[in-house]
Peroxide stress protein YaaA
Amino acid sequence: MLILLPPSEGKAAPGRGRPLELGALSLPSLTPARERVLDALVALCRDQPDHAATVLGLSRTQLDLIQRNATLADAPTARADQIYDGVLYEALGLDSLSPTAKRRAASRLAITSSLFGLVRVGDRIPAYRLSGDATVPGLGPVAGLWRESLGPAVTDAMGKGLLVDLRSSMYAGFWRPPAELAPRVATVRVLHEVAGRRQVVSHFNKATKGRLVRDLLEDGRDPRTPGALADVLTDLGWKVEVAEETKKGTQLDVVVTEV
């Protein structure tokens, strides 16, 4: 089973650590694309800081992130699971997993990244700022570049197992599973039910997905189909509704009543 996660917009910047080594990251087929994005982002922030603020969507209180991007090649790195620190990752709580669940996280989780395409939780990366909808001078739309590169890396990583796609819509645009993979693709939507009415709530959605992934990692089962995944989640106490399979995969609705 391969679980695709979105990144967090905010990131924890390590105070020390060895500099970035692109060649040491997992999924080495992505190295050429990673080099292109890194070089373009560093050049933009180093040579055109005012324009970089616009491209990156930064406010006046965030201009320090331009300098951080300009020095990415030499910036200290830490494990990806220490860099990404948003709502989903707080709920997932990778640091407090059991030793066995941590080993599963290393092999089953992949984090979508505008800068690196995909990273594993143990990959050492610097803190950076680059949104999935950015268009970088000399590079073009970030999403477009990754659409050309991610497919083989993802299909390699998932092997013959199930793909559980938890990416947000922005990062889902980096790569969409082809129709032939649909029987082995599950997407998850979180619905908050109150007084019989259901709605999607962004913050709650992220936290719930984090807790759901934590449960799967601690449980350890390796479902091979969306229906089998729904059965596992139901066993773990989640309320799950399974939609009809489409050429994009099968959507699982996880219905929750408490924030």
About this structure: Residues 65 and 112 are 20 Å apart (CA to CA). The mean pLDDT is 95. The radius of gyration is 18 Å. The first strand starts at residue 2 and ends at 5.
